[in-house]
Amino acid sequence: MKKVTAGREQLGDFAPTFAALNDDVLFGEVWSRESQLSARDRSFATITALMSMGAFEQLPFHLQKAKANGLTQEEVAELITQLAFYISWPKAWSAFGIAKEVYQGENQNE
pTM of this prediction? Predict the structure, then answer.
């Protein structure tokens, strides 16, 4: 897995402890425990949590990560559809707009 440095890049000078926890612990240690939960499944869970909270500003990064971890356009569309009935229709619409941008140009039916 590619090392995540977003914490240090965005908050390193302002909040160095938080940046280190983000980059080294969350993405460095937790996400690397693939024998407990695969990166694909961690992406699936993370997208679900972010959508549930309405944290759409973080969704593009995590959808890109999910795509890199093997979640297909079809699977993401099905996940958002399933969640729509539990988290709200407007949140699903918001998530679909972001997912379309991330998976733009892909057609899973080809």
Answer: 0.84
